[in-house]
Amino acid sequence: MVDEQGTGGKPTGGYIRPGIDDRPDLDKALSAEDKENIARLTAPMPKKRAAEPSIDDEQTQGVKLATDSQVPGSGMAALAAIDTAVPDEDSAFMDMRDPMVSADGHRPTKTEIVRLGVGFTVSAIACAIPWVALSTVILPRVFEQIDSGSKVFMLGLVNSIGAFVALVANIVFGTLSDQTRSRFGKRTPWIVLGGLITGLSIGAIAFTRSEALIVTLWCLAQMGYNMMLAPYVAVMSDRVPDKVRGTISGFYGAGIAVGQTLGSVVGAAFLTHGASGIFQAWMMGLAIFSLIGIFVVVVWPREKSSKYEADGEKMSAKVILRNFRPPRNAPDFYYALVGRTLMMGGYWMITTYQLYIAQDYIYAGDPHATDKAAAIIATMGVITLVVSLIAAVTAGPITDRIGRRKLPVALASCLFAVGAAMPLLFRSPMGMYLFAAIAGLGYGVYNAIDQALNVAVLPNPKEAGKDLGILNLANTLSTVIGTMMTSIVVSIAKSAMHASGTPAAAYAWVFVVAIVIVLIAAALIMRIRNVK
């Protein structure tokens, strides 16, 4: 007997048909995350082999079947070869990796993960302090003491040549570390050696007043620093599991932001002690960089031997040159590369020249501009330190929890642009302090997430050293873009205003150009498709 039907098609007699009337509304029962997971499990229709132009030719395929089937056991293989589905590597069915196993096949313990995190964080802080102190405060002051008329040009020159050296070194040593076979592993020897070269080169600058020799030694330091940095960053891909990569990347990025902030404070403190302070700053760089590579490999779990790893092609000049070739068919990779280059370019446009900005823009015409500029830089450093710590404890873990990298990176770039507008609106110490707070928070969040985004867009994990080396070119190219753009803007302003010195209005245009560049970077990051 059929029950009478009520409204909506359900029985009115109280009987519930199992599997029919009690079936839930999936649109309401499933969460947004459940729907995304189901969508990810969806495999597209099989693709035909692109390399079979005769696939639709019946006569050709008939001959192929007849010929191949004469080989014992090959009949089904020949049939399958006519139109074989190409597996979709983006489908979750093909992604069977354990997110707590690193790319090298090891499942690190909690203690090992903590050691990796500590190593990345401490070394990021330790490297950033002397590098920023020397490159943005001490080195500009040295050039000013040698020849104040050419200080802007010399600072742009040394950063541009040094950046080119760093660019080449990053790719070469990233590739060499991929191919290194030793009982100490493939990354460890380069990290230790690079630190020693950097430290010795920086220490030698303290003993010369020759501009040519300073440029040469600084370029040698850039080479050593990138010899260490390229394999160092590749460890993030090699040994940090996907599940915790965002958190460790967050602490690493925050360590960079905190170290750069402290670098400004430390550099300003050394500057107030005159010639003796400048000498001590170079000695600080010598000590920290010489020891940091050794410190990192001791704190991290020991890298396994690479002596018996399967060798690819033998290392040669041809192989190295071929590794300069960036990945193909990887648009996300290039959006990340150009986006980071422009974002960091805007950052260095302001940071590299912060001493000159404070002297010639905020305190233009003040006879005590140098001392007051040092005080501003120190206060800005403290402000940026606080907001960077906030970014450190929030940004990385939050993005791991929500599973998103792209949008937070783009928003952080926009926040930096807002901060860069503050000195334009308020030409005073307060404007610089607001810049430090707002732009510093944006930069801290950016650094906390961006490295995880870079790893996510790698097209081939087996070439992580090379590809991350190319992505890290953003750090190098951004220095060139930042220093050269500021130098060009200042030069144009001086020419337009027929001024022998640097007019204050020139630095106002520096902030405008930096804002435009950073917003373009945010737009490019949002074009990345395969990373949320």
From TrEMBL:
<feature type="transmembrane region" description="Helical">
    <location>
        <begin position="113"/>
        <end position="133"/>
    </location>
</feature>
<protein>
    <submittedName>
        <fullName>MFS transporter</fullName>
    </submittedName>
</protein>
<feature type="transmembrane region" description="Helical">
    <location>
        <begin position="213"/>
        <end position="235"/>
    </location>
</feature>
<feature type="domain" description="Major facilitator superfamily (MFS) profile">
    <location>
        <begin position="112"/>
        <end position="532"/>
    </location>
</feature>
<feature type="transmembrane region" description="Helical">
    <location>
        <begin position="470"/>
        <end position="493"/>
    </location>
</feature>
<feature type="transmembrane region" description="Helical">
    <location>
        <begin position="333"/>
        <end position="353"/>
    </location>
</feature>
<keyword id="KW-0472">Membrane</keyword>
<keyword id="KW-0812">Transmembrane</keyword>
<keyword id="KW-1133">Transmembrane helix</keyword>
<feature type="compositionally biased region" description="Gly residues">
    <location>
        <begin position="1"/>
        <end position="12"/>
    </location>
</feature>
<feature type="compositionally biased region" description="Basic and acidic residues">
    <location>
        <begin position="19"/>
        <end position="38"/>
    </location>
</feature>
<feature type="transmembrane region" description="Helical">
    <location>
        <begin position="432"/>
        <end position="449"/>
    </location>
</feature>
<feature type="region of interest" description="Disordered">
    <location>
        <begin position="1"/>
        <end position="61"/>
    </location>
</feature>
<dbReference type="Pfam" id="PF07690">
    <property type="entry name" value="MFS_1"/>
</dbReference>
<feature type="transmembrane region" description="Helical">
    <location>
        <begin position="247"/>
        <end position="271"/>
    </location>
</feature>
<dbReference type="InterPro" id="IPR020846">
    <property type="entry name" value="MFS_dom"/>
</dbReference>
<feature type="transmembrane region" description="Helical">
    <location>
        <begin position="153"/>
        <end position="176"/>
    </location>
</feature>
<feature type="transmembrane region" description="Helical">
    <location>
        <begin position="505"/>
        <end position="526"/>
    </location>
</feature>
<dbReference type="GO" id="GO:0005886">
    <property type="term" value="C:plasma membrane"/>
</dbReference>
<feature type="transmembrane region" description="Helical">
    <location>
        <begin position="373"/>
        <end position="395"/>
    </location>
</feature>
<feature type="transmembrane region" description="Helical">
    <location>
        <begin position="188"/>
        <end position="207"/>
    </location>
</feature>
<dbReference type="InterPro" id="IPR011701">
    <property type="entry name" value="MFS"/>
</dbReference>
<feature type="transmembrane region" description="Helical">
    <location>
        <begin position="277"/>
        <end position="300"/>
    </location>
</feature>
<feature type="transmembrane region" description="Helical">
    <location>
        <begin position="407"/>
        <end position="426"/>
    </location>
</feature>
<dbReference type="GO" id="GO:0022857">
    <property type="term" value="F:transmembrane transporter activity"/>
</dbReference>
<dbReference type="InterPro" id="IPR036259">
    <property type="entry name" value="MFS_trans_sf"/>
</dbReference>
